Amino acid sequence: MAGAAPAQERLDTVVKIIAQSMVAEVCSIYLRRASGDLELFATQGLKPEAVHNTRLRPGEGLVGEVARSAAPISLSDAPTHPSFSYRPETGEDPYHAFLGAPLLRGGRAIGVLVVQNRSERRYDDEEVEDIQTIAMVLAETVASGELLGQEELRDIEVAPHRPERLKGQRFAEGLAYGHVVLHEAPVAPENLLAENQQVEEIRLREALIALKANIDGMLEGGAGKLGGQSFEVLETYRMFADDRGWNRSLEEAVRTGLTAEAAVDRVRTEHRARFAKARDPYIKERLHDFEDLANRLLRVLAGDRPGERDLPDDAILVARNLGPADLLEYPRHKLKGLLLEEGSAASHAAIVARALQIPCVGRLMGVRDRLSENDVVIVDGETGEAYLRPRPDMLSAVQSRMEVRSQRQAEFAKLRDTPAVTKDGQRITLLTNAGLAVDLENLHATGAEGIGLFRTEFQFMVSEELPRLDSQTALYRLVLDTAGERPVTFRTLDIGGDKVLPYLETEREENPALGRRAIRLGLDRPALLRLQIRALLAAAAGRELRVMFPMIATVDEYRAARELVDHECEWARRRGRALPAMLRVGAMIECPSLLWHLDALLPLTDFVSIGSNDLFQYMFAADRTNPLVSDRYDPLSPPALRALAEIQKKCADTGTPVSVCGELAGRPLEAFALLTLGFTRLSAPAGGVGPVKRMILSTDLTAARRGMAALLGSSSASIRGELETLARKLNVAI
Fold first, then answer.
1. CA neighbor of 460 nearest in space, from 306, 661, 325
2. How far apart are the first and last CA of the chain?
3. What is the pLDDT of residue 278?
4. Which residues of 656-693 are buried (b: 16+ CB within 10 A; e: fewer)?
5. DSSP H or E stretch at residue 9
6. For residue 112, what are the CA distances in angstroms to 1, 40, 189, 314?
7. Cβ neighbours around 317 below 10 Å, total
8. Residue 118 and residue 25 in contact, taking contact as beta carbons nearer than 8 Å
9. How many CB atoms lie within 10 A of CB 186?
10. pLDDT value of position 555
11. What is the mean pLDDT of each run of 10 residues along the chain (734 residues)?
């Protein structure tokens, strides 16, 4: 293969050697053309004139079936198989036994290797192993150009290379283009064939021991633990790492003559091809576990450590899914966009992306396998689309749109110091949401009047162990110092549900969104909540402290949480510790049960804040993280708006300050609806502050409220269209 002979001559030699070594009367190599057709490139035993003349469409014949299934097929009497396709130009009439194996690259078949015999024989397991090993080597050599020159490779589809457009969901707004970086990109084995089989067996065994020790360290809370990944996932990793079938497959692959790296790569590729065909979502989910496990094993073999990858200056990160800690490991100044196969707009990776103002599109099925490292890609966070390997005219169009966006951002920047006052003189308090250190920079840049929601759980999710009192205090003090005279509202730890900490043991729940999470977990583990309250009190010594509790479902829960605050204040007084100059304690209204108990709750609180994301998912019984049902309701529907109007009225009657801090407050049209319902305090994501302020400045609120009153009685599932018409009629900038 490394010789200087022409490509066809080398291919002819390869099939001849394979036929001899496997005692086969026919050996043929088919490669996938850019059209998708499988073309006969070389053969030993079939008619020579069929080479480059015989083509099979995707899924056609046994060869097409091997490529489609990405799995080997062994038959003793091929002509009787329903997928058999007779091609007279090949002269394969006398051959009955058939064994085909796919040439796999990234889980896709780029070709097929076939051996055939006249007799009706069944190829044994060793022969199937042999042809898979040979097919793997051929796939690597074809893709690398060692077997075919660059000229011959041009029309061979080693990897997808044509422009593609994929429709997903918008997770974080914005536009970006750049070069693909695959998250946890597989380490490509440099050497495929072992020089010393025993040495490779020892290397594999030692790497498996190191991998298992690493996973055990994660489970036990030791160094090297993955921040932000659940305890259950790590337990699954350990289970798979100990799985006899997986270990045996690796050992058998090494015994066929592969290096340890090539063995792992082969087993991973086989799993990917097999699991990718599964329809059961649970089984497909297991593919991700095996992928991650194999990638980590390859890194152990390569001696690499996570977080040491060099990124291009215009990196577009592509992953199946991400935890918030995974995203934060990448240098922000180089990361321009994010594409995900899974996730949801409410996932914490998406929230972090919005905080970092990184355009993000998710729910892009198969995007990772459709891209190679360094491919050019466009992330369209406005339409929820991704353009893979775009044409030059598409790139030019995106660059023009990015210039327009930059101009809009410049307009928003000019409004930074302008008070948020409507055209008819109504003063609106516009705050921002935060949770990361980078959000503090946005506080000044956006001109927000304070932080209406500081998500304290992010410090816990990106930490390798439970943050101690001093580290929590330091973060809260930094937030208050940065905010200065501007108010900050801290939400106590909101974990559980989809936010499971790897170092905090929890029981598996059938429905975690409705399980022990947020304040429920805090009250069940009061030491955890008290430690956080103690840190908040210490950080705010001599200043105002605003604390609110998430997911309050009953008045008794709020009373119990408030008692913990009082207890910690008394604890600090007895020890002569400085306390906040002013302490305000509030509740988040996220559970519909409170809608009918506000008369009992509001007199006990200093303020309340509406978490519209959770409130509406519980109200409509539709999981906002589940793409199958997340779009089954519109927050701009009469039931949702009436509920908000009722909360606002009760708060006005009791003189209780109320704000809205969900995603609703960061979108101009939705924020316009909130203003018409009487809300004057909004807390938006950093990227939404500018657009919402521009909307406020253009609104005649008196006229808008008259228009909204007529819409609330609608029987429609959504009044979004009517609101847009009203906003245009009033010249509101939405």
1. 325
2. 63
3. 55
4. bebbbbbbbbbbbbbbbbbbbbbbbbbbbbbbbbbbbb
5. helix 7-21
6. 18, 9, 21, 36
7. 25
8. yes
9. 17
10. 97
11. 73 91 93 85 93 88 89 92 89 91 81 93 88 86 66 59 84 91 67 83 88 68 36 53 78 87 83 60 53 74 60 90 68 90 75 84 84 89 91 89 87 91 95 82 86 89 79 93 94 77 67 82 92 96 96 96 96 95 96 95 97 91 77 89 96 96 90 96 91 95 92 89 94 92
From 27, 591, 651, 661, active-site residue: 661
Do the Cβ atoms of 189 and 47 come closer than 8 Å? no
Read off the tokens for 556: 């008794």
Has 27 been annotated as catalytic? no
What is the residue type of 60? E
Active site residue 288: no
Q: Which two tokens stand for residue 466?
A: 């439970």
Report the interhelical angle of 720-729 vs 668-676 (nearest 10°).
Answer: 80
Whether 145 contacts 153, CB under 8 Å? yes
Residues in the chain: 734
Identify the bridge partners of residue 38 per DSSP, sorted by sequence position: 32, 56
Q: Are 74 and 128 in contact (CB under 8 A)?
A: yes
Query: Across-strand partners of 430?
Result: 682
Q: What pLDDT does 460 receive? A: 82
Instruction: Give phi and psi for 83, each to the nearest 5.
Output: -90, -5
Contacts of range 124-132, beta carbons closer than 8 Å, 24 or more positions apart: 127/22, 127/99, 128/72, 128/74, 128/99, 128/101, 129/252, 129/256, 130/22, 130/256, 131/22, 131/72, 131/99, 131/100, 131/101, 132/72, 132/101, 132/266, 132/270
Selecting among 96, 183, 271, 348, the annotated active-site residue is: 348
DSSP letter string, 502-539: TTS-----SSGGGSS-THHHHHHSHHHHHHHHHHHHHH
CA-based torsion, 216, 219, 225, 228: positive or negative:
positive
* Close Cβ partners of 127 (under 8 Å, ≥ 6 residues apart): 22, 99
Q: Return the residue matching tokens 């003349």.
A: 53
Which residues touch 209 (CB under 8 Å, ≥6 apart)?
Answer: none
Tokens encoding 462: 């990106």
Q: How far is CA 471 from the centre of its chain?
A: 28
What is the distance, to the nearest Å, from the Cα of residue 270 to the centroid of all Cα atoms in its chain?
24
